[in-house]
Design a protein that fits this description.
- By secondary structure, the chain is mainly β.
- Helix content is about 5%, strand content about 45%.
- It is built from 2 helices and 29 strands.
- The strands form 8 sheets. Strands 16, 17, 18, 19, 20 and 21 form a 6-stranded antiparallel β-sheet that branches. A 4-stranded antiparallel β-sheet has the order 2-3-4-5, with no helix packed on it.
- It is globular and about 70 Å long.
- The two termini are about 45 Å apart.
Length: about 450
């Protein structure tokens, strides 16, 4: 006997919460996951059931209760480096960089550093990795793709981070220098920052009565182009300028009357008086090397994406694989998934939007500006879109995997010996196919 099971909107509300638990699958098939409660990274090789833990950095080993489980885990393309960010519990967040030994389960802490509570890491990406391999669609033979993103001739590894205060950090190890270096630039305004020079840029506030904290970001690089595109989604927190009067306090703590209440406030994403910004901001960053020092140049890319009012779920760039006939083509797609709970009385609506970014040609052989165009707006009714992940390039195809939960199904009334029960399905969506199909409708 079987019974029909139906889901409610509350079953899918955890899909809209921040931060999310990270899962990183390295190129050597080692799966890194975050512990459910402790600031710990658990790793397991795909072909083995044996787990191992990465060593703690010094601040975590001295007090496990000071930090939350990591929200960012990323492994370098050569499987030699691993980065993770641990939010602090009333403390500054902690970043840690591990280096791998000869064996897959041999890791050691290389560096750790702190970021302020309102400046935690929301996205990370490695630069200067080896050229990728793909399969030629005509001959079926393996072929190497052009280099992707800016070159890093004097540093290994090179890692870029996007933080909650809308800044991009370049973290790197210079060859023959053991200490980690970093410098940063603003993603909200045009700026030029040179390595080992002070940052004299001034941050400008768009609103005087609110503060925007970046809660989700995506970093995109494309083939045969040194540009870095950064997409950011923010949470808006109101600022109160009213100073409480003494009769507003219900408790007499015996404090001197001349002491003013502390107006310092941290902006956690769980505050109920905050709201998610309806736009997605886009910035372009150039990482250059003049033979001696590196520098970053940031500039806004207009227009910003304004028709995105629902709760953002996933945000990722999908780089178009260049064809054999045109290896210098420069384009990518930004894929964003959204959740609309409406009035919290029925199942939410899950949707996915896709925006294309194409580099225009400029005169004189110089690269032109980026142009953006909305390509896809797709709903997933009656399913629930759980996750969007970019798949590796193959046969010049580029796209995403989407995992979809079923909102209803048959459940056995009695215990059976069946070991698995289907709760959804996985789809591979190719950008070229769904964009062409969307235009034909």
């Amino acid at each position: 006997m079987e019974a029909t099971g139906n889901s409610g909107w509350w079953d899918f509300h955890p899909l809209s919460e921040y931060p999310r638990k990270p899962v990183e699958w390295s190129n050597s098939s080692v799966i890194f996951t975050a512990h459910a409660l402790q600031p710990l990274i658990i790793a397991r090789h795909f072909s083995s059931s044996r787990q191992f833990n990465l060593p703690f950095p010094a601040p975590i080993s001295s007090n496990l209760n000071t930090y939350d489980p990591p929200t960012i885990i990323t492994c370098s393309p050569d499987d030699r480096w691993l980065f993770a960010f641990f939010p602090g519990r009333g403390e500054d967040g902690l970043c840690c960089l591990w280096h791998r030994g000869v064996e897959l389960d041999s890791w050691s802490v290389k560096e750790w550093w702190l970021f302020a509570q309102s400046a935690g890491v929301v996205a990370a990406r490695w630069l200067g990795g080896p050229r990728e391999w793909t399969i030629d669609s005509s001959s079926g033979a393996p072929t190497r793709l052009p280099s992707r993103g800016p070159s890093t001739p004097v540093s290994n590894p090179t890692l870029i981070l996007v933080t909650q205060d809308h800044r991009l950090f370049v973290c790197y190890l210079r060859y023959y220098k053991p200490k980690l270096n970093m410098f940063s630039c603003s993603l909200l305004q045009a700026s030029v920052i040179v390595e080992q020079e002070p940052d004299n840029s001034q941050e400008t506030l768009d609103e005087v009565d609110s503060v925007k904290i970046c809660i989700n970001a995506a970093i995109g690089t494309t083939y045969s182009d040194s540009s870095i595109l950064v997409a950011m989604r923010s949470q808006v927190f109101p600022i109160s300028f009213s100073v409480p009067t003494p009769d507003q306090f219900s408790l007499d703590l015996g404090l001197p009357l001349e002491m003013e209440p502390d107006q310092t406030e941290v902006y956690p994403t769980a505050r109920e008086d905050s709201s998610e910004d309806s736009t997605i901001q886009i910035a372009e960053v150039q990482l250059q090397f003049d033979g001696t020092r590196m520098e970053v140049l940031s500039s806004k890319v207009h227009p910003i994406i304004e028709n995105a009012p629902n709760r953002l779920r996933d945000l990722c760039f999908v780089c178009k694989t260049p064809s054999k006939e045109n290896l210098s083509s420069t384009s990518m797609h930004l894929v964003a998934s959204f959740i609309d709970f409406k009035e919290y009385v029925s199942l939410p609506i899950f949707s996915m939007k896709c925006y294309s970014f194409i580099r225009t040609n400029a005169s004189g052989g110089e690269k032109g500006t980026w142009t953006m165009q909305s390509e896809i707006n797709r709903d997933f009714e009656p399913g629930a879109l759980a996750q969007v992940a970019v798949f590796q390039p193959a046969y010049t195809d580029h796209g995403v995997y989407v995992s979809i939960y079923d909102t209803s199904g048959m459940q056995p009334r009695h215990k059976i010996q069946q070991a698995e029960l289907s709760v959804g399905h996985l789809k591979m969506l190719k950008m070229q196919v769904i964009v062409t199909a969307n235009k034909a409708v």
